[in-house]
Amino acid sequence: MPVVLQAVVVLLHAGECVAAMGVFIDDAHGDRISCRSNASGKDEKGAILFTIHDLAHGFMTLLRETLSYLLATNPRGKLDQEHDDYLRALRCVRCTKVQFKDESFSRKKCLRVLELKESSVQKLPDSICQLRHLGYLKISEFTGLVTLPESFGHLKNLFHIDLSGCSRLVALPESFGDLINLTHVKLSRCHGLAKFPEPLQKLGKLVHLDLSFWSCFEAIGKGLGGLTTLEHLNLSNPCCHLARHRSHLKGLKDGLCKLTKLRYLNLSMCLNPMFYHYQSQEDSPQYIGECVSGLSSLEHLDLSHNTFLFDLPASLGELNKLKTLNLSGCIRLKMVGEMKSLTFTNLRMCRGLESCQFVVRIIDDDDVYSSSNIVQLEVVNCQELQISCLEKVKSKEEANGIKLVEKQKLQKLKLSWTLDNVGRVKDSALLGELVPPPNLQCLEVNGYTGTCLSEYLGELTSLRELKIVRCKHLNSLPDTMQKLTSLKDLCIFDCPELEKWCQVEENKKVLAHIPNKNYEEPASTSRQEIEEDDKSGEEVEAA
């Protein structure tokens, strides 16, 4: 590319700076570039003529006077940049061939952002610690790096450091604890760290700590317990099934329960080594309960791919701020109980799930395009399913989207509306979309405000038990009830209009084939359960 065009390209890439100078490129000819400007000294066409020398000189003056940040992306692995004195940001990838000399960073003292990626060097030059204005530092995939310079603590303005993939890093220098402004530290895949880095204990502003892909540190529980300012902690991905790793993880709960400001906790795959060796299935939920007890600020919890997790502690339901729970890949998980505050539950690939209690909530109610979380049930296929607060469903399409009719494992289904709460979709229309699979054996409809049930009831030929509770306006049952030859138990409670219908002689014939009919309070749907259903709906409404 000719020199003139190179200069033009440089100016175009620095278009913001050129505009600030009031200069606009018109044309290039010979060794001159014609530009328009609001300055004096115009030619006969109203343009200013610059020689290449003038342009270069003016451009560098502009850099010195007005440049705030210049991002230098270097794909060729070279650190030497022209005009290093004015660089504010530098990104150098594929540093395999870079020679890190002692003076490599001596002329880059104005750097605010530095990213170095992919190198096998064992040592960084001390001059990197002269970057006193540095706020963001990423040194990733430095697979040969064993330690950091002892003078690392001189970087007082550092607030974010990423050392991910430095797999041979064996320790952090003591001066690392002097980085008192650090808020974010990422040590993902730092497999060389055997002990929990003690310098982290001195970081009084630390809010984000990533130890993913390696969290089997010695004394990890004690180390984490002192980081009381943490809000985000990532301990995801597996440890080995070694005895020493299990002993390290055993103390994890003692540290986690002290992090009362924690909002995000990722324990994906992390707990498998412990759960694998537990003697009983009750031990794993107890351990998790001890980990999260006291985490009153927790909003997001990831327990995904803990394949030896059989159950969840009841104490999870006491975390009133918990919004998202990831249980995907927990293939042995048997039951998910009701957690009223959740807006998102990931149950993908939970193929061992037997029972699920799901509370419908609206996601982002302030948004005109908001939806309910019922769509998350599309991936759930269990034997028993309870869906409460159905008045929160925002459209028939949402209900249809969970494909209830395709859940062939489903044997017992409870559909509940909160009493006296006006639904966003007419109850009869919503019930019509929630078509159960034909092999369903037990069905309960609770709090439904419609006057009649859906005709598909007659297609549930495997149904053995039908409960209808608190359906105040329901005044009849469909004639197709006579098709339900397997139905053994019919329970109707607190449905005054329907109870009257059942007492009519003609209607008694429709129900004559059902051996057990109960119009009293059902034993398995007690008054206490009904009151709790109402309270649950009220709490969800308030949240």
Fold and architecture overview:
By secondary structure, this protein is α/β, with parallel strands linked by helices. It has 3 domains: 3-66, no CATH class; 68-202, Alpha-Beta Horseshoe (Leucine-rich repeat, LRR (right-handed beta-alpha superhelix)), CATH 3.80.10; 354-543, Leucine-rich repeat, LRR (right-handed beta-alpha superhelix) (Alpha-Beta Horseshoe), CATH 3.80.10. It contains 13 helices and 25 strands. The protein has helices at 3-13, 15-21, 52-66, 220-225, 243-250, 252-256, 272-276, 283-292, 396-401, 427-433, 496-503, 505-510, 527-542; strands at residues 23-29, 32-37, 48-51, 71-74, 89-92, 113-119, 136-142, 160-162, 184-186, 208-210, 232-234, 264-266, 300-302, 324-326, 335-336, 344-346, 355-359, 362-363, 371-372, 384-388, 412-416, 442-446, 465-469, 489-493, 516-518. A 12-stranded parallel beta sheet has the order 4-5-6-7-8-9-10-11-12-13-14-16, with no helix packed on it. An 8-stranded parallel beta sheet has the order 15-17-20-21-22-23-24-25. Helix 1 (3-13) packs parallel to helix 3. The longest helix has 16 residues, at 527-542.
Q: Give helix % range.
A: 10-25%
Main β-sheet, spatial strand arrangement: 4-5-6-7-8-9-10-11-12-13-14-16
- What would CATH call the class of the largest domain? Alpha Beta
| Cα end-to-end separation | 63 Å
Annotated CATH architecture of the largest domain: Alpha-Beta Horseshoe
The assigned structural class equals alpha/beta
As for the number of domains, it is 3
Oligomer: single chain
% residues in beta strands: 15-25%
Low-confidence stretches: 1-50, 62-70
Main pleated sheet = 12 strands, parallel
Rg, alpha carbons: 33 Å
Write down the overall mean pLDDT.
82
Number of strands: 25
The helix tally amounts to: 13
How would you describe the shape?
elongated
